[in-house]
Write a structure and sequence with these properties.
Length: about 110
């Protein structure tokens, strides 16, 4: 059974809109768990919720290394399909693509 902390993290991740990214540390801070970026990774790994996990990257603007290169490649593909761009080193401009933490407008609302 997921912990309350994991649920708080997953609730924040669920709000990241398409075409935007957030860092592990940013997610922890928005969930009221500043300084616990690693917990974000654990929560995403343990969750069985359908979350946009691919929108969570490290503080350098990079896809974090995992045990297999397939999931990294898949993450790059998912982000690129949403319009997120990478530089020559495979980094994402946080200045350009970082989510501001606000909830996206509901269907039918103007922004």
């Amino acid at each position: 059974m997921p912990s309350d902390l994991h649920e708080r993290i997953c609730d924040v991740v669920a709000r990241i809109p398409s075409g935007r990214v957030a860092t592990y540390g940013q997610i922890a801070k928005l969930a009221g768990l500043g300084g616990q970026a690693r917990l974000v990774g654990y929560a995403l790994y343990a969750s069985d919720r359908p979350l946009p996990w691919h929108r969570v990257i490290n503080a350098r603007g990079e896809v974090s290394r995992r045990g297999d290169s397939y999931s990294e490649l898949f993450q790059y593909q998912l982000l690129a399909s949403e319009g997120v761009e990478f530089d020559g080193q495979g980094r994402i401009s946080l200045r350009r693509f970082r989510w501001n933490g606000e909830a996206p407008p509901a269907a039918g609302e103007s922004s």
